[in-house]
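Q: I'm building a small set of examples for a reading group on sequence design. Run inverse folding on the following structure and report the sequence directly after it, with nothing in between.
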């Protein structure tokens, strides 16, 4: 970083944010040059620092290190200070100084800090180490010393901290180098008759008390004592110089002091500190608010000045300082922020952010009441302010219209002209006046109100606040409800002639309904206000974020208490139709969700025609999904927006139509658990194209759709109940009935497909499924998922399906699964038809085929038995992505919350538009309940959430919409992968032609491999004939294959006198190895084997007309076998790093040895478990 007019001479220091050089300018003057690293400071942080630096530039005092040049806008940003040879004050032998010199030196310190404070500049770290001394014994103080810290800990309350620190410095100077912690004895003298030691003692005793209490409770006493102390210093100094004695009151002009009992005159104020007063903009019994201008940066501010009478009141002065401290803590865009606290000429004042608008109380006087949209926009900003305050455990205690200030004069007009989708990105109002605020838990020194005292405005106070009981964040939310009631009706919920009568109503009378005063207010908003005004805090919203969630939903035109949304195009249109149907079902949500979320089946059951789906690009080159329904009655074409859902809670979809009876339609299904069963609510929000469509849709949805849905949901409910008793039936329509001849053929083929390994129960239930289920069900049969549904053994059903495919009862097919959305993107009849790559039209990506993840075996009933329905009635519904817990679409700059109840485990938060996902870990060890995530940082985050409830706030900081998915890390899709099924001996036997094309290689990304090699095979050939030895080894290999199968593995390769098997889970492979070695030793078997377990990628190809496995992982496995002994199992590092490995080693009480030798072609170490005998 070079600056033309300065030539660096020597590097003094460097830090993360930049460097500091000794340099000279073009005139050869030496300067202290500090250059800031571009991008180190955030824009917000740099704006704050720039204002501070401008004040430092204006600090014209010989004891302050002077800024002589700076660049705060263009890069490189820098500061150039005067260069002085100095050393720390601590290194000065102050004891040798004459008392007069020490007095003059102390006066320099006082004058410097006084002038700095007048400009609102705090040092924040004043000490005998940071005060420097020149060769001429003059002081130099660097007020920019903390700019090397990106997160500056300084606050606007640091002026008082400087005063405390200055007292310590004065003590050190005048006592001849004693530390304050050493104290001072009354017997001590200071080598001069003019100085009273008792002044030291009294002052520092008081200082000690103030520091211990760490707040401003005794600040006024301390200031008065320090004022007298410094007056004494100046008196002594001037007497020794033959000058006039200083009167103590003369020091009142210093900004160090204040709080004297004298009444100050606020009428003739022209300037306070660096602020030029322009006009009065408000007043009251406690003081005046002025409009002022900062003379340094020309910004407009509001000065809140307390009157002399209040300043003389100890309690009020304490509350004034407390308000300043709390304002500093809650600093955020939704409050009237404090910029500074200061004092001058006995006048205490707060410098506040100036807000150009009016308080809402005045707006209500002018307009009587607000529209629903106006009320929601303003109250939403109030709630955002409270959410931040409540996070810091600060309760406002005085929420009311007068303490809410609009950001502009014509704010109501601006709200009316703002679209519902943009309201969350604008700030319409700010919360002010934290004068009554307090922490939820305050120590004694902060508790300025007596137990049972009532503080607040009765018209808006909560019942517990009215009764003088303990308040909480929910008390603020009650006040929000009362304020919102006033916005909507033109008056508070309770009115009476006296404050005590109002208080009595808050405590004892039920809150009135808004509908009594305005029937046009929406039901959703009425329910929010009703909940806020409940007497019992436990029955209200429990936090501001929960309330904000419902408020934002209403602004988008959605019902309240919903977690996910489609954002609707327009809800202000009076022609928009709303339908809401409710059913009380006997089944629980977990039983209902798999059926109700199967939108394919529901749409078919409703009698809808299967649409034609295609993808096209918009004018801005964005992809969109189009659907066309070529119905003879109503032709429709629409854009299908992504489904949005939260598993077992809610799902919804928005469709926008190019032609047909709809302009747009949203379908929303919600599940509400009850004590017995579930309340299912299905809502439709529809914009009809014209008056005729309105009449038609009104009739169709009320008379036809409602009845059809009722039949479907009630039938699903009966199925869920009967499933408990293992009764099989079609969940969406009447059971299918086969003709007699088809039934006979089905039973004949079933009989041929069964062997003695398949139970009678599995046979009967599968036959009943093929006979009775819908045409959609039998079009894509997934054995593992079906086994769970039928409650039969998975391996039995796999065997039955393979046999049935060989007998012609089923047809064998291969689904190609997109690795991103996990939805089938293509269907092939044989493996030979597959290429090395697949393409997903929905995600618009090409992907490499992976036998372990992207190729799945499915079955279809043979057309000779019955018809199957391969048409697609819905695309993108939850049932297509069972591994996805939640999917939402966020528009540009939108924010929303996901309120979750995740079980312990690992999850992924991902977006198809982004490359990397965010990892989530849920466990008992985590405590942070809520996380805020900007979508642009998704791939760089790793979140740790506690068990129970979790909240993730998503903020789309892109300029385009994004789809966000919360997924299980391990797919819950019950699939038969090509990797698994191709290794099954039965599959190889029945379908030898199911191989890849010659010379085609397909990857398997994650293969868990288990290898066994018979170590003493040569001994068999030495002791027996070749035939006998071969037979015995063959028998042993059969036993090994049986052992592998018992642990859910399959043999994929035989090599010499050994086998290689694959396993679906690491745990099963580890157990197979441990139990094999132990069982062989316990049975005194003569067989000696080496065992190894490894995990990695492999390639599969067709060799000699059968599938075979190749690659470095296979070679590494063979190497592991060689380094192992016959009484141990050898594991690769990739296996040992799995958490289950340590659990199993501990469970089996094994010790492990890490061998330094690495697996060839990898960086993995070898881990052994010796002595398994």
């Amino acid at each position: 970083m070079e600056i033309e007019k300065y030539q660096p001479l020597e590097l003094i220091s460097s830090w993360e944010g930049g460097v500091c050089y000794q340099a000279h300018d073009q005139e050869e003057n030496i300067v202290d040059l500090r250059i800031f690293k571009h991008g180190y400071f955030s824009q917000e942080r740099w704006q704050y620092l720039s204002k501070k630096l401008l004040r430092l530039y204006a600090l014209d005092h010989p004891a302050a290190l002077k800024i002589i040049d700076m660049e705060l806008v263009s890069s490189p940003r820098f500061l150039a200070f005067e260069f002085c040879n100095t050393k720390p004050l601590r290194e000065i032998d102050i004891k040798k100084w004459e008392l007069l010199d020490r007095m003059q030196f102390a006066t320099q310190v006082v004058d410097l800090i006084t002038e700095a404070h007048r400009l609102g500049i705090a040092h924040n770290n004043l000490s005998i180490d940071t005060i420097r001394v020149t060769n001429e014994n003059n002081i130099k103080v660097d007020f920019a010393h903390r700019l090397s810290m990106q997160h500056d800990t300084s606050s606007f309350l640091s002026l008082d901290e400087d005063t405390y620190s200055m007292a310590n410095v004065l003590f050190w100077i005048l006592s001849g180098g004693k530390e304050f912690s050493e104290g001072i004895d009354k017997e001590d003298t200071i080598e001069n008759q003019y100085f009273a030691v008792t002044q030291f003692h009294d002052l520092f005793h008081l200082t000690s008390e103030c520091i211990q209490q760490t707040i401003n409770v005794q600040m006024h006493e301390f200031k008065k004592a320090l004022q007298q102390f410094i007056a004494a210093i100046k008196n002594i100094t001037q007497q020794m110089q033959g000058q006039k004695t200083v009167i103590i009151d003369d020091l009142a002009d210093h900004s160090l002091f204040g709080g004297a009992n004298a009444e100050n005159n606020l009428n003739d104020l022209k300037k306070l500190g660096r602020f030029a007063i322009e006009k009065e903009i408000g007043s009251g019994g406690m003081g005046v608010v002025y409009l002022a201008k900062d003379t340094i940066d020309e910004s407009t501010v509001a000065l809140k000045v307390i009157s002399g009478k209040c300043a003389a009141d100890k309690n009020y002065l304490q509350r004034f300082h407390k308000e300043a401290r709390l304002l500093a803590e809650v600093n955020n865009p939704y409050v009237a922020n404090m910029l500074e606290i200061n004092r001058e000429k006995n006048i205490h004042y707060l410098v506040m952010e100036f807000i150009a608008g009016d308080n809402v109380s005045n707006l209500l006087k002018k307009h009587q009441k607000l529209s629903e949209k106006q009320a929601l926009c303003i109250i939403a900003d109030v709630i955002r302010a409270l959410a931040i305050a409540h996070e810091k455990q600060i309760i406002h205690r005085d929420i009311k219209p007068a303490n809410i200030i609009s950001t502009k004069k014509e704010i109501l007009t601006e709200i009316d002209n703002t679209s519902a989708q943009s309201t969350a990105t604008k700030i319409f109002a700010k919360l002010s006046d934290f004068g009554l605020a307090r922490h939820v838990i305050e120590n004694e020194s902060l508790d300025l109100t007596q137990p049972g005292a009532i503080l607040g405005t009765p018209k808006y106070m909560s019942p517990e606040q009215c009764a003088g009981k303990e308040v909480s964040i929910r008390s603020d939310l009650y006040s929000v409800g009362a304020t919102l009631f006033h916005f909507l009706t033109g008056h508070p919920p309770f009115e009476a002639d006296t404050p005590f009568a109002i208080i009595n109503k808050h405590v004892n009378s039920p809150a009135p309904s808004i509908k009594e005063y305005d029937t046009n207010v929406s039901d959703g908003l009425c329910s929010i206000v009703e909940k806020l005004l409940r007497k019992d805090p436990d029955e209200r919203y429990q936090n501001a974020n929960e309330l904000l969630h419902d408020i934002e939903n209403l602004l988008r035109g959605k019902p309240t208490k919903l977690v996910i949304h489609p954002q609707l195009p327009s809800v202000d249109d009076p022609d928009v139709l709303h339908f809401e149907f409710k059913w009380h079902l006997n089944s629980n949500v977990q039983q209902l969700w798999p059926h109700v979320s199967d939108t394919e089946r529901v749409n078919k059951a409703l009698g809808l025609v299967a649409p034609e789906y295609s993808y096209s690009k918009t004018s801005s080159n964005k992809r969109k999904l189009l659907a066309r329904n070529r119905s003879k009655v109503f032709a429709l074409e629409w854009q299908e927006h992504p489904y949005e859902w939260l598993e077992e809670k809610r799902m919804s979809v928005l469709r926008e139509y190019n032609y047909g009876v709809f302009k747009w339609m949203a379908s929303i299904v919600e599940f509400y658990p009850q004590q017995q069963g579930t309340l299912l609510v299905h809502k439709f929000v529809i914009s009809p194209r014209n008056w005729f469509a309105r009449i038609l849709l009104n009739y169709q949805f009320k008379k036809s759709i409602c009845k059809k849905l009722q039949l479907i949901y009630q039938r699903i409910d009966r199925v869920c109940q009967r499933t408990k008793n293992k009764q099989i039936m079609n969940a969406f329509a009447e059971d299918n009935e086969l003709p007699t001849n088809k039934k006979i053929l089905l039973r004949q083929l079933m009989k041929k497909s069964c062997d003695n390994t398949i139970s009678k129960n599995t046979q009967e239930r599968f036959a009943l499924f093929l006979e009775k289920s819908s045409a959609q069900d039998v079009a894509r049969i997934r054995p593992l998922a079906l086994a769970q549904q039928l409650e039969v053994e998975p391996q039995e059903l796999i065997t039955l399906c393979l046999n049935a495919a060989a007998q012609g009862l089923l047809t064998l097919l291969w689904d190609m699964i997109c690795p991103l959305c996990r939805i089938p993107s293509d269907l092939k009849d044989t493996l030979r038809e597959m290429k090395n790559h697949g393409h997903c039209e929905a995600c618009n990506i090409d992907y490499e085929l992976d036998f372990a993840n992207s190729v799945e075996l499915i079955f279809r009933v043979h057309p000779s038995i019955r018809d199957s329905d391969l048409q697609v009635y819905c695309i993108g519904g939850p049932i297509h992505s069972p591994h996805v817990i939640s999917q939402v679409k966020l528009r540009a700059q939108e924010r929303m919350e996901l309120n979750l109840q995740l079980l312990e485990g690992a999850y992924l938060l991902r977006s198809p538009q982004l490359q990397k996902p965010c990892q989530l870990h849920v466990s008992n060890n985590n405590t942070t309940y809520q996380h805020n995530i900007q979508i642009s940082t998704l791939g760089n985050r790793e979140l740790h959430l506690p068990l129970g409830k979790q909240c993730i706030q998503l903020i789309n900081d892109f300029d385009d919409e994004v789809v966000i998915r919360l997924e299980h890390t391990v797919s819950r899709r019950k699939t038969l992968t090509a990797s698994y099924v191709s290794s099954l001996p039965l599959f190889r036997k029945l379908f030898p032609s199911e191989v890849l094309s010659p010379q085609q290689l397909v990857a398997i990304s994650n293969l868990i491999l288990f290898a066994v090699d018979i170590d003493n095979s040569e001994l068999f050939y030495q002791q027996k004939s070749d035939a006998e030895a071969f037979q015995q080894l063959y028998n042993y290999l059969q036993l090994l294959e049986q052992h592998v199968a018992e642990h859910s593995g399959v043999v994929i390769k035989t090599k010499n006198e050994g086998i290689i098997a694959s396993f679906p889970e690491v745990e099963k492979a580890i157990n197979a190895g441990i139990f094999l070695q132990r069982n062989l030793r316990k049975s005194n078997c003569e067989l000696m084997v080496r065992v190894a377990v490894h995990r990695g990628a492999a390639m599969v190809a067709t060799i000699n007309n059968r599938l075979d496995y190749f690659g470095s992982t296979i070679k590494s496995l063979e190497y592991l076998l060689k380094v192992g002994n016959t009484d141990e199992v050898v594991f690769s590092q990739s296996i040992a790093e799995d958490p289950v490995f340590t659990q199993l080693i501990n469970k089996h009480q094994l010790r492990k040895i890490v061998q330094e030798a690495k697996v060839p072609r990898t960086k993995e170490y070898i881990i052994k478990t010796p002595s398994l005998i």
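Residues 266 and 380 are 37 Å apart (CA to CA).
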